[in-house]
Specification:
Layout (H helix, E strand, L loop, with lengths): L7 E4 L6 H8 L3 E4 L6 H8 L1 H13 L7 H9 L5 H16 L2
Parallel strand pairs: 1-2
């Protein structure tokens, strides 16, 4: 998260290889180690296109308060949305002045 393209990322606890695969996809150089089995890490690299697509989808949604799908759900459940806040404020103000 705090690195830029070309930076070196070090993860001494490889686990399932999340840091390695994301570093590879986001064009970071990486160094890692793991004392346990590395089958899951190898599998991730075999499926790198799948992970690349997932990261693209995540990045497309960053800095968006609510996706279109979430807006539909919020409308259905009667929850606020940024575009409904101003209307809600006006309605509340009217109710207070009518009392």
């Amino acid at each position: 998260m705090a690195s830029e393209e070309g930076d070196v990322v070090f993860d001494p606890f490889g686990g399932s290889g999340t840091t390695y695969i994301v570093s590879e996809i986001l064009k970071r150089r990486w160094i890692g180690s793991e004392i346990g089995p590395i089958d899951s890490i190898i599998k991730r690299f075999e499926d790198i296109d799948f992970h690349r697509d997932q990261i693209k989808e995540i990045q497309a949604k960053k800095n968006i308060l609510f996706t279109d799908e979430m807006k539909k759900i919020r409308r259905k459940n009667g929850h606020w949305l940024p575009e409904t806040l101003e209307t809600a404020k006006k309605n509340k103000s009217k109710k207070l002045t009518n009392k």
